[in-house]
Description:
Elements lengths: L2 H13 L11 H25 L5 H21 L4
Helix pairs in contact: 2-3
Amino acid sequence: MTEESSFLANLPDFLYPRSPYHGQFKPEYLIFDANLQEFSQRVNYICNLQTNGKLSPQEAYKQIKILWKQLKRTKKELNIK
């Protein structure tokens, strides 16, 4: 395996890191944890784009608000309190 192919194989782990779930084991908790981690990653990207001038503050806020509503809807659908 070349150095470049090794780098490309590990790129998704670098770009989309995942932390193991340590809470009470229930399928709905695992699903919500995955959604929460994805929310966190996306908010991080949006913040970085806004910081670097690629997104306006208003557009960044709008996108984060949409992601937040999706996360809340997922929590409600999974009946997590």
